[in-house]
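Dear Dr. H.,

I hope your travels went smoothly. While you were away I took the liberty of generating a structure for the chain from your last submission, since the lab meeting agenda had it listed for discussion. I wanted you to have the full record in hand beforehand rather than looking at slides cold. The sequence, exactly as received, is reproduced here:
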Amino acid sequence: MSTIQRRRFLALSAAMASLPGCKTSPRLTVASKDSIEQRLLAEIACQLLEKKLEARLERNFGISGSMVAYQSVQAGGIDLYPEYTRIAYKVLLKQIEQSDEGLILEVMRRSLKLNAQAGCLPFLGFQNVYTAVVLADHPTLASVASLSQAAAFKHGWRLGCTSEFAQSSEGYTELKQRYALAESSGTLIEPINQLYFSLREHRLDILITGSTDPRLGQSKYRVLIDDLGIFRPNFCCFLYREEAALKYPSILPVLESLSGKLDTTTMIRLNAEVEIEKRGFASVAASFLASAKLA
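The corresponding predicted structure, in token form, is as follows:
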């Protein structure tokens, strides 16, 4: 079958599926990368598709990285997975990031279509950007609201971050250069759970984490404002395979109903329900869909 014939066949299938009595349940593979937030978003999408369209889904959660997931979309092994715009631009599309929210989505859609025969849905509503966190009762930082104010203290802070932040182009080096943030000792580079332990034990003053970190819903922690804007936008949305959307056109409006429903506060809470309260992904996803009146 030629490319033209294949496209005609898919278009005809989509048209037939929209006719009364000819609807078919979508058969899709929904994937996620290996993080709590990613798995939770994928499970929310799965339950929504199952409830609204009686979709028959294969869950492929825990993929080892963005490039593996992206290549699987290109190869037809994955139909849908959540992704972050910063990763899409830097790792997948290798393009310069846009600063305007509308342009971020427009350019990303155009590039995905050209390079991967894929598309992306509207943003879910939250961003997962790098964030500086301190203890709310820190004796010296109690009156400090921003990173610039922290940088005004020249006695030096004890900083902590993950290896991902330390190696990022918008990470440790830019933080030091733009804010001229003085350190009293070498930066502690550890997994995020260990960094929080060191912060609580007062072996750290400032740690860098993601803005949807589940611990940020707790009053014992406080976020310092990135007043120079060095931590660039990082929205989240679902990437999908174009052929899947052509074959099952009903999936897009269903998934678009999630747009704007997951703000940062909601995402922090949902992540906390899984990581801190130890609730199952399926249970948290079902509760969210019910509370958002999507189920």
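Two observations you may find useful: DSSP finds 13 helices and ten strands in the chain. The longest strand covers residues 56-63.

With kind regards,
E. W.
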